Amino acid sequence: MHRENRGVSRRAFLQSAVAIGGASALAACMDREDVSVPAGVEDPGSLPSRQHAWNEYLDRDDAGNALPPRHHALLHLEYDGLPTDADRETVTSALRTLERAYEWSSDGLLFTVGYSPAYFERFDADLSDGVDLPEPRPLSDFEDPVLDDPDAIVHLASDHASVVLEAEEALRGNRDTANDVTVDDALADVLSVAERRTGFVGEGLPADNQDTGGVPDSEPVPEDAPLYMGFKSDFEKSQASEDRVTIRSGPFADGTTQHVSHIDLNLQQWYEQDDRDSRVAQMFCPAHADSGAVEGTGENLGDSPQLEDCGDPAETASERGVVGHAQKLEGTREDGEPLLLRRDFDSTDGGNAGVHFLALQQEISDFERVREAMNAADISDSTPVGRRQNNGIRQYLSVTHRGNYLLPPRRHRALPTPEGDDA
Amino acid sequence: MPEDDGRFGRRTADTQPTVGRRAFLAAGGAGGLGALAGCFGVLETEPASREPPLPENRPDEAYVPSHVEGMQMVGMQTQGRYACALSYTWPHRFWLVRGSDTDQVDVRGADDVHMMAAVWDTETGVVLPGASPSIEYTGPEDESESFSPWQMLSQRMGVHFGDNVTLGPEGVYSVSVQVAPPSTRRTATESVPTDPLTFDFELTFERDGMESLSYEDIPADREGTPGAVDPMDMHGVSQSRAPPADDLPGTVRGPEPTGGAELAVSTLDERGRLATGDDERYLVASLRTPHNRYVLPAASVSATAEAGGESVFDDDLRPTLDAALGYHYGAVVPTGKSLDEVTVRVDTPPQVSRHEGYETAFFDFDAVTF
After folding, report:
1. Would you call A383 an interface residue with chain B, using a CB distance cutoff of 8 Å?
2. How far apart are CA B262 and CA B239, in angstroms?
3. pTM of the model as a whole
């Protein structure tokens, strides 16, 4: 059970600092990272109207895939009563401080603020037509998730652990400055932080953080894997564009919806019982396993998981007894484009390997459609594929939390009304 | 676990004449294991597999395995119409199946037990191969782990869910088995509850207790020969045995051998909500193991049928549950005539994971015409 005693790697240290949080973690992290973080804009009004406009500001790999920021935090926030103008001004000021402090990029800070159905319930008016934001609910027959209902959620993301931590501390009112910019107002002056969740994504980080529940002691996570399951998933061509997920009209035009679930991973079977071909068949499709299409983490696939050759999921399930996760989701494309823009990341929250599955889509029902395709109930009822077993990667996942949020356009992100007004 | 709490207590379910595992090992009963006789210190701290090697020249059909181990029943519980039994035995090798490929899973050093859950419908007595439970266990040091055991087939227990599991320190473990009743099609008209259920058990893990589980080495002249060991006496736990072919309702044909399994076909004038009219017949294919008649789930099965010299059916059969037919593959055939000729094909072998003795069988099926 005891692994060889070894020093904590820099990457593992930085990730665990984010997981721990707070002033001392930040101090230790700044020492360790010692980076000069590019400053933000003088006029926050010059930033894109879409809070989720990140892609243009992310690094790209050789194949042109957007690389997500490596460190992440999600803050759950509560707000009492009806919003006042003064409170909106405080929120706006706190968020603009971050925009002045850090460049809008993964080298600086990318962030969004979202509001839940529970937040909008306090108003007499209904949420504007054109915004599909139902309460979260269980989306498969096995799950019994905690249905998250904070009023608001902030997603902080950066390649630098110290930036995520410092931004959080600034929002909490624990910092006088953020990247040398004076912090006048804190989000915590008007909203209270109910919970924080953290995580990471990108080459090396999952391997560095595999000493946790759900991962066998044999340290099986490949060193170059961006995610615990050992494969790349952010292929440009399997991601919706930001345009696709953007609300087109109404007061929340340029906004989007965000689904955030937390999923526990159990990788014992995945790494110690399934062989490589089975993992490829389950993650992509059996045809990919046959042809050896996937090398290593799948970097060789370029900007597309190349699922065109995978075949019809029901036929594959019937003939092969196994159906691929990605293969099942192909059918949910609309006009050839995926419905979800995934910005998920891994986590050790709760002492277990997990995923904060964060997805943006125009409507929450888009997410539900994709999840239904992943459940593949029609396939498991009529083919050898089980509801879990050999059904993509369902065997290894258990959903613990689900939450739905509206990410308003930047102009309405401070305690909006259902009609989209703010200060 | 107290003896008097209405569960099974420390009873070893085993019908074979047996000796304790430790005694067996100490006697050096299996060639390769004699060398371990002096290694009990290792055994106690590291109860990994001490399985004998696989029999040589395993036939492509059900065969008598190298050894048989006893099982510890942790308990059996009922909630509404569903029941769940939890048990464990020594960790052992098994085979995952994907398509026609098997992937041998060997015991890891850290594995403490092979944990098994069986789930059945008490009103029909039918085991639910689609139960797909997940199991969460919390040990004496409050560490929790969860996993989704594999759907498995063993000669002594039939269809169940199991996996080799690392527990940890000795002591009492609370184990909860979560089941979402499966949506496998049923012939019955009544609807069944589908709300998720949790069955809670207490498992006392003692390495010495493991030693007392029975263990029988099967002599070299018997192991690896076609056949199977007998089903275990499961003390009230429903087993996934198909009815004898003669007991199936309807006009029965077969059983005929195919792929090392047995296939029986029955046609019925009506069945529950599936075949109701004068112009419908219900076609049943019941695929089971030889010797023990365990149902073989998770296969792709299709059929063609002729009536009055005309083709009346050419389609897949679908996994279906029925109190009298058990788990079977069935379809409604749109004809009022009786079926003259039925041909059944197993297009994809049963994808159920296999315990030793079944891993070479039920892969290569010929079409059977009745």
Report:
1. yes
2. 18
3. 0.89
